[in-house]
């Protein structure tokens, strides 16, 4: 089955770190750019990061630059989001998504909730 | 980069049509023919329903159609069905991928 499954979310204190994972299956993971998109409670979607097929190029929204880092392991079909210096406004459901180009994300995971609170 | 502007809500009766607008700038919607639309039901992940302004992924009903004029893209849902009640978001390729503010569609 073609799917993405996120894990790693939870409750974390402000300033803490967390690593999210996204396991891909059913397709050639290494052939696709991959992205992370988040959605704060009751709010809209926000694209936050993307990574090239071979991991050589990354891009981030300004609000997470220097704190969140996207990476991938093509040998094990895994996408990661390392989250450092977490802030209360990072609280959101985090989705990984398969990128077919030019802002089109055709496969999404179910999402994992990250709550930043003291 | 600020979000693309969508109306907060839209509604229609079953069988009617509803059109949602997505207004950007000459640097995103107006420059690129790369606007996508996503449908999101409560508590669920978004689903791609339109990409590259007018293209539908396999499995998406042809009741969903997209268009663009100048800096504004539009999604039309024809023959509204109860299951079309959801939030809809546009996204434009640009210097950064920017989502729209979202539109809640209600089927009356």
Give the topology, please.
The complex is a heterodimer of chains A (118) and B (108).
Chain A: E1 3-7, E2 10-12, E3 18-25, E4 33-39, E5 45-51, E6 58-60, E7 68-73, E8 78-83, E9 92-101, E10 104-108, E11 112-116
Parallel strand pairs in A: 2-11
Antiparallel strand pairs in A: 1-3, 3-8, 4-5, 4-9, 5-6, 7-8, 9-10, 9-11
Chain B: E1 9-12, E2 18-23, E3 35-40, E4 47-50, E5 64-69, E6 72-77, E7 86-92, E8 98-99, E9 103-107
Parallel strand pairs in B: 1-9
Antiparallel strand pairs in B: 2-6, 3-4, 3-7, 5-6, 7-8, 7-9
Describe this structure in words.
With 118 residues, chain A is an all-beta fold. Chain A is built from no helices and 11 strands. Helices cover 0% and strands 55% of the residues of chain A. In chain A, strands 2, 4, 5, 6, 9, 10 and 11 form a 7-stranded mixed sheet that branches. In chain A, strands 1-3-8-7 form a 4-stranded antiparallel sheet, with no helix packed on it. Chain A is globular, with a radius of gyration of 13 Å. Chain A starts with a strand and ends with a strand. The model of chain A has no long low-confidence stretch (mean pLDDT 97). With 108 residues, chain B is mainly β. Chain B contains no helices and 9 strands. In chain B, the strands form 2 sheets. In chain B, strands 1, 3, 4, 7, 8 and 9 form a 6-stranded mixed sheet that branches. The radius of gyration of chain B is 13 Å and the shape is globular. The model of chain B has no long low-confidence stretch (mean pLDDT 94). Chain A binds chain B through residues 35, 37, 44-47, 50, 59, 61-62, 95, 100, 102-106, 108-111, and chain B through 3, 32, 34-36, 38, 40, 45-48, 51-52, 57, 89, 91-93, 96-102.
């Amino acid at each position: 089955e073609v799917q993405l499954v996120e894990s790693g979310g939870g409750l974390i204190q402000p300033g803490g770190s967390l690593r999210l994972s996204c396991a891909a299956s059913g397709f050639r993971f290494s052939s696709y750019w991959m992205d992370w998109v988040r959605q704060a409670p009751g709010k809209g979607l926000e694209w936050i990061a993307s990574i090239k097929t071979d991991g050589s190029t990354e891009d981030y929204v300004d609000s997470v630059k220097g704190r969140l880092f996207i990476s991938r392991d093509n040998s094990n079909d895994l996408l990661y989001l390392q989250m450092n210096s977490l802030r209360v406004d990072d609280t959101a459901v985090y989705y990984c998504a398969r990128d077919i180009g030019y802002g089109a994300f055709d496969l999404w995971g179910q999402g994992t909730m990250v709550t930043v609170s003291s | 980069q600020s979000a693309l502007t969508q109306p907060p809500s839209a509604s229609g009766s079953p069988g009617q049509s509803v059109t949602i607008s997505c207004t950007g700038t000459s640097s995103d919607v107006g420059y690129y023919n790369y606007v996508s639309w996503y449908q999101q039901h409560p508590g669920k992940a978004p689903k791609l329903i339109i990409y590259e302004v007018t293209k539908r992924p396999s499995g998406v009903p042809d009741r969903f159609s997209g268009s663009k004029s100048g800096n504004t893209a539009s999604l039309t849902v024809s023959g509204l069905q109860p299951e079309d009640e959801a939030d809809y978001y546009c996204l434009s390729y640009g210097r950064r991928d920017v989502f729209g503010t979202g539109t809640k569609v209600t089927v009356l």
